[in-house]
Design a protein that fits this description.
Shape of chain B: globular
CATH superfamily of chain A: Beta-grasp domain
Largest sheet of chain B: 7 strands, mixed
Strand order of the largest sheet of chain B: 3-5-1-12-9-10-11
Number of strands of chain A: 5
Order of helices and strands of chain A: EHEHHEEE
Number of domains of chain A: 1
Radius of gyration of chain B: 27 Å
CATH class of chain A: Alpha Beta
Largest sheet of chain A: 5 strands, mixed
Distance between the termini of chain A: 38 Å
Distance between the termini of chain B: 61 Å
CATH class of the domain at 380-461 and 611-755 in chain B: Alpha Beta
CATH architecture of chain A: Roll
Number of helices of chain A: 3
Structural class of chain A: alpha+beta
Number of helices of chain B: 20
Oligomer: heterodimer
Strand content of chain A: 25-35%
Shape of chain A: globular
CATH topology of the domain at 380-461 and 611-755 in chain B: Aldehyde Oxidoreductase, domain 4
Helix content of chain A: 25-40%
CATH topology of chain A: Ubiquitin-like (UB roll)
């Protein structure tokens, strides 16, 4: 199963500081829903505030992006530019 | 994105330097900026602003102002809907709390900084509007204020928002404070890392608020019709941002608000939010006439977002051979009157250029009684780089190592994981360091009182939503519509990419920046995203057109499309035993009506797959030992640019970023008096660099293409402002033999350091 990692504290208030999660999802949206089922409120938070790196490519709002069984997935805070 | 065709090595137009389509109008003064707009019956708006840094608004009496002949409308916060904090703007890069944006446009209950808007008028002349402002009676209850971010963090500091409880801590505090948010990035075992280090270096660095300093003040004209539909003409970094933010703030449908982008006289991040537009819309709605508002320079300084003051504590552990084994950086950033400093980006960029196995970067978002900060070119990255790159310079000295060597040893490479968790791909830091090392500047001799500084910068670059339309006209020329204001030459790069993809001369492609009703949604011009995201959409639209051209030529010849070749604006029939005369693009387009209608393609996409970039800057200064004045003698900036579509405009971005960073390092700062009022709200007292202050900034474009983009584009506009603060500070340290850790490096500060014992 793919593993979702987070190296920042931006999800801590939902996850209690956990940094790795196994998910069964096959898409970004499925992953967010699955994490939301485990940590109430996290799905909505991630939808608004997170980008997702999948195997090194950073996606923002790409909820339909596929996730493979061996994908390296990292949740990243969205950052605004100037 | 993976269906895009691979990078072509044989470009015909990409990489050349044609004249920009908007160039002639800009250099002849014909280009129309927002302040040039005028309409019949137009009124003039003016804004009344708080003289207090922090005050409760007890009452606002507008009756005398309304009674003044020529005054057609007066508004206060009561004329705006009170928004729920959960209302956010969609489609942007970051999270936008519209309740805060609304309260920043017009104070509601409290003025949170000097210059905060409390009321506005529309009158038949600017002078009547000014008189009317004097007649608006505002009763304030002044409150204790705090402008310094460290003071604001103290438990007994004056409280800006009594409902602000620090987010991001393991447990939410029960007591309100000015600390809005806490962030942390970490990996490895920090304790273990520092325990293994041969040398541990610690230092605090500080920066002051600085303004983007765009030449053109904010300006807009709004016209609301009797049926509630409205048009706005304004200067911004995103007409769709203006539409969406303003519609939410004033409470109207997005489709009822059409925003027309004027030319923009600089933004640098500062025009990614709204200040005037909602006010002008509500004034116009109330008055029934168009309303124009133009800020003065004083208002720009006092009421629009500078970037954050910052305090950064850096601790770095290294081995004797130069390997960094541990890094701990704490960043405190000023947000201004409302939460939302860019400190998150500081935590993600501070150590992003280096492979640090054990590290932690923490960030604090602090509200103060100062203007709400706005984005400024690679927000927060220059501050963070100033701290880390200054520390590395000192570490190199302590190790007796060339500062370049220290960076070469630790530079991130492809496949390494950034501190924010994502593997780095298609990056060119090593190549960019080498470009500086090979430049004659690197080994050039220095004279007395002169010093040299080196610094590195990182920025993510951006992607996001872009919509474009590419249309082939009956004569074979091409019209291109994008929806992002042209700040750095995007019309030129758009036309070049389309010309390349369609195989037509650049001069036959004419791009426009369309209004919000004329093209699909686009995110702002910002985040170094436009050439990347728009480029993907434009090339995709052009490739679809090429397929359509081959189909149409085939229909003309009665052959399948796969028996038609197209290149350089000419379709050729490949069918055996057919001697068809090749068709020019215009000949095919002229017959479009007969074979399916106009040749036009719209592409709307959300671009992902952006690649980060790096800058490496080298600066020589001379310090006057009698005055402490710094002269920048020589400056060389190398940057991994992905692929330069138009090299001149990429070089311009690099030079502009370097110039702004030099000003940030040497001169610029907001100065507040004891009442929390800004003391230097004009260009005479707020000293930005001018051409005669700077040497020619030499640029080196290092091309490490991003394969996700068909032409290798990464984004170039922001990273050049990241290294200069530290490059200049390191050069001054080299020249005077003493480290100054607080910006700006003003003559007074340098002279004091030089004469101290």
């Amino acid at each position: 199963m793919p593993v979702v990692r987070v190296t920042s504290s931006f999800c801590d208030s939902f996850t209690g500081g956990l940094t790795e999660f196994e998910v069964a999802a096959t898409t970004v949206r499925g992953m967010m829903r699955e994490l939301g089922a485990r940590f109430p409120g996290l799905a909505e938070f991630l939808e608004a505030r997170a980008a997702v790196a999948i195997d090194g490519t950073i996606y923002r709002n790409a909820w339909l992006q596929p996730i493979g069984p061996d994908s390296d997935i990292v949740l990243i805070p969205r950052v605004g530019g100037g | 994105m993976n269906d895009m065709k691979p990078i072509k090595p044989d470009f015909k137009i990409v990489g050349t330097r044609p004249v920009r389509p908007d160039g002639v109008d800009k250099v002849t003064g014909k280009a129309a900026y927002a302040a040039d707009m005028a309409m019949p019956g137009m009124l003039h708006g003016r804004i009344k602003r708080s003289p207090h840094a922090h005050a409760r608004i007890v009452s606002i009496d507008t009756r005398k102002a309304l009674a003044l002949k020529g005054v057609k409308a007066v508004i206060t916060a009561e004329d705006f809907p009170e928004l729920d904090p959960s209302i956010v703007a969609a489609g942007g890069e970051a999270h936008h709390n519209m309740a805060n944006y609304s309260a920043n446009c017009m104070a509601r209950g409290k003025a949170l900084y000097e210059g905060h808007a409390v009321a506005a008028v529309a009158a038949t002349s600017p002078s009547i509007a000014r008189q009317a402002l004097e007649l608006i009676e505002v009763v304030y209850e002044p409150m204790p204020h705090v402008t310094d971010l460290l003071e604001a963090m103290k438990p007994d500091a004056p409280l800006l928002h009594d409902n602000m409880f620090t987010q991001g801590l393991p447990e939410t505090p029960t007591k309100a404070s000015n600390i809005a948010k806490f962030f942390k990035q970490e990996r490895g075992n920090l304790e273990e890392g520092f325990a293994s280090a041969d040398l541990v270096f610690e230092q605090r660095y500080t920066t002051q608020p600085v303004h983007q300093g765009y030449i053109e003040p904010h300006a807009c004209v709004a016209s609301v019709s009797a049926d509630g539909q409205a048009m706005v003409w304004c200067s911004s970094q995103g007409q769709f941002m203006v539409r969406d933010f303003s519609a939410k703030i004033v409470g109207m449908n997005q489709a009822d608000l059409r925003v027309v982008p004027a030319e923009i006289g600089g933004g640098f991040g500062g025009k990614t939010v709204v200040y005037l537009e909602p006010l002008a819309i509500v004034l116009s709605r109330k008055a029934g006439r168009p309303v124009k508002i133009v800020m003065s320079r004083d208002e720009v300084f006092r009421a629009t977002g500078p970037t954050s003051a910052s305090v950064m504590d850096v601790k770095i552990g290294v081995m004797k051979d130069g390997r960094i084994v541990a890094g701990d950086v704490d960043c405190k950033f000023q947000a201004g009157g409302f939460t939302g400093s860019p400190v998150m980006a500081a935590t993600m960029t501070a150590l992003a250029s280096y492979d640090v196995p054990h590290c932690r970067v923490t960030g604090w978002d602090i509200v103060t009684n100062t203007p709400k900060v706005a984005a400024y070119r690679a927000p927060a990255a220059p501050n963070a780089a100033f701290a880390v790159e200054s520390a590395l310079d000192e570490i190199a000295r302590e190790l007796g190592m060339d500062p370049m060597t220290l960076r070469e040893i630790n530079a991130v490479r492809n496949g390494m994981t950034a501190i924010y968790g994502a593997p780095l791909q298609h990056i060119g830091l090593v190549e960019t360091l080498d470009a500086i090392k090979q430049h004659p500047h690197y080994e050039a001799p220095l004279g007395p009182n002169q010093g040299r500084g080196l610094a590195v910068g990182f920025w993510f670059n951006g992607g996001g939503e872009s919509s474009v339309t590419v249309s082939i006209n009956p004569d074979g020329t091409v019209s291109v519509a994008t929806g992002t204001p042209d700040i750095g030459g995007s019309r030129a790069s758009s036309a070049m990419m389309v010309a390349e993809a369609l195989g037509v001369p650049y001069e036959k492609v004419r791009p426009i920046v369309a209004d919000t009703a004329s093209v699909g949604f686009n995110e702002i011009t910002g985040g170094s995203r436009v050439t990347f995201s728009n480029g993907l959409a434009l090339v995709r639209a052009s490739e679809q057109l090429v397929d359509e051209i081959r189909l149409r030529a085939g229909l003309i010849w009665d052959v399948p499309a796969d028996q038609v070749a197209y290149a350089d604006g000419i379709a050729t029939c490949l069918a055996p035993d057919r001697a068809e005369t090749p068709l020019l693009l215009g000949e095919i387009a002229d017959k479009a009506a007969h074979f399916g209608g106009p040749l036009s393609k719209e592409v709307a996409l959300n671009a992902d797959g952006v690649a980060p970039c790096f800058g490496v800057h080298l600066c020589d200064v001379e310090v006057d030992p009698d005055t402490g004045n710094v002269t920048v003698l020589r400056y060389t900036a190398a940057q991994d640019v992905g692929r330069a579509i138009h090299p001149s405009y990429v070089e311009g971005q690099i030079q502009g970023g370097a110039a702004q960073g030099i000003g940030w390092a040497l001169n610029e700062e907001y100065v507040f008096n004891a009442k929390g009022q800004m003391e230097n709200s004009g260009f005479l007292d707020y000293r930005m660099p001018i051409a005669s202050d700077l040497p020619m900034i030499d640029t080196i474009m290092v091309e490490v293409p991003n394969p996700v983009h068909p032409y290798g584009v990464k984004g170039v506009g922001e990273v050049p402002i990241v290294p200069p603060l530290a490059a200049v500070a390191n050069a001054v340290r080299d020249a005077i033999g003493k480290r100054i850790c607080d910006l700006p490096l003003s003559p007074t500060r340098i002279h004091a350091a030089m004469t101290a014992g």
